[in-house]
Amino acid sequence: MRTFPATGISLTIKKYRGTQRLVVFYTRERGKVEAVAQGIGKPGSKLASLTEPLTLSRLFFAKGRELDRLTEGQVLDSFYSLRSDLARFAYASYLAELVAGATEPGLPMPEIFDALRSSLAMLNGGANPQVIVWGFALRLMRELGVGPVVEQCASCGNSLGGKVYYSPAAGGLICADCRPAAGFARSVSSTTAALLRSLVSFPLDRLPRLSCPPSSGSQIEDVVRKHIQYHLGFTPRSERFLREIQATALADKGDEPE
């Protein structure tokens, strides 16, 4: 049976047959890999640590007719701090679900792997989770060729001017002249437009330095969410839980004494 190695991050795991599990990895060399891991349900399984979601490992697979099989591997980073912080784990799980749902098996895109690995490392290290999630999601969609366009008007290509709108159908930010023909479009501030440009142009490791006022944060959140729904065609199941965590955090912040 033909085998192949890959460096990958485990994204999701679910029961398959008996003690087997079906695990989705995103690898640098092969893109998304869906593989069966045998014996995961048994105590002392040597493969169990490799299949824990959000684990970076050096993996070895046996090629199968329909599904590959995980044979062995070595954990490189478990991003341990994420597992002791419910909020950060929720943000990281959202990224994993986003990659699992947006990519196809056998289409390697090293840039997506590198961005995911860096994003998990920054979340693990305590960086602002919302900014990391926005930056990653925008990069993922641009790597997949679905935008959003934020540098100029997505409809006419001209500069955006003073009044700026976001239109999912147009594929990004649009100017006031293109607004009437765009269908649904929401107004975004010039600060939000500038922050969106920074989120897609800054190196990932510089994103935690961005300062984002709450009003722009809510607009960016809406743009990212609507763009994912419209252009990727799904909503990550973890989004609802993530929004509950964000609402709780805001409420707790509002209760703090001035």
How many strand segments?
Answer: 8
Total DSSP helices: 7
Radius of gyration: 20 Å
Mean pLDDT: 92
Oligomerization category of the chains in this entry? single chain
Broad structural category: alpha+beta
- Which band does the percent of strand residues land in? 15-25%
State the end-to-end CA separation: 66 Å
Instruction: Characterize the main sheet.
Output: 5 strands, mixed, barrel
What is the percent of helical residues? 25-40%
Low-confidence runs of at least 5 consecutive residues: none
The total domain count is 2
Shape: elongated
Strand order of the biggest β-sheet: 1-2-3-5-4
The arrangement of helices and strands along the chain is EEEHEEHHHEEEHHH
